[in-house]
Design brief:
- This protein is mainly alpha-helical and 202 residues long.
- It has one domain.
- It contains 8 helices and 2 strands, in the order αααββααααα.
- A two-stranded antiparallel sheet has the order 1-2.
- The chain starts with a helix and ends in an 11-residue tail after the last helix.
- Mean pLDDT is 78; it is low at 1-15.
Length: 202
């Protein structure tokens, strides 16, 4: 009897781990594919270390997720993950611009303030020109010259946030699923009719 119970517990544990591994791996792989086309052209070198950090986060989740301490750590990583995703989306939407070369679309990271040289180049076009058009005219290699130190700060911040986001991808997904399961279970318990003390007459 004890042997059967032990086998059953081990199988349930294996089955649970298998589901977590598969779902988290799908999330990580999907994120890598989706973000592969969003990374600015200058920072394409982040793709490989981002993939390795995603794998490290997945292995960390599988190893340390059990127990009360593991659950608390996963929830902390989930909160951090939400903040990191919010910062990444802000950077991606406000400081990554698209430039079309021929039939191709390229994304470039820019800074927050123009340098004197950047302002000078902008003024060479009396009709007015957008940052993406300026980069198209003079070349993306001059982006650090156009934006100066603000570009270096943005590039460093973007790189750190991207790598952090890849590392917490799997724990964040599992944390969300854990919160959803607990919330759904609590709601289900509250929705059950209270039948204690009720006498049915047929």
């Amino acid at each position: 009897m004890e042997i059967q119970m032990s086998i059953r517990l081990k199988w349930e544990q294996f089955d649970d781990d298998f589901v977590v591994i598969v779902l988290s791996a799908i999330v990580v792989a999907g994120q890598l594919v989706a973000l592969g086309g969003l990374i600015p052209y200058q920072l394409k070198g982040l793709y490989l270390p981002g993939g390795l950090l995603s794998l490290a986060g997945l292995l960390l989740l599988v190893k340390y997720r059990r127990g009360a301490k593991g659950g608390r750590n996963i929830l902390k990583l989930t909160i951090v993950g939400c903040l990191v995703y919010a910062v990444f989306l802000t950077l991606q939407s406000s400081l990554v611009i698209s430039v079309y070369y021929g039939n191709g679309r390229f994304r470039f990271l820019v800074g927050t303030m123009l340098t004197e040289q950047g302002i000078y180049w902008m003024r060479q076009f009396p009709q007015g020109i957008s940052p993406s058009e300026l980069i198209y005219q003079i070349g993306y290699v001059y982006i650090p010259v156009i934006y100066g130190n603000s570009y270096l700060v943005v590039a460093t911040t973007y790189s750190i946030i991207y790598l952090m986001m890849m590392f917490v991808a799997a724990p964040t997904f599992y944390g969300f699923s854990m919160v959803v399961r607990v919330t759904a279970s609590q709601l289900l318990e509250k929705s059950k009719p209270r039948l204690a003390g009720v006498r049915f007459i047929y």
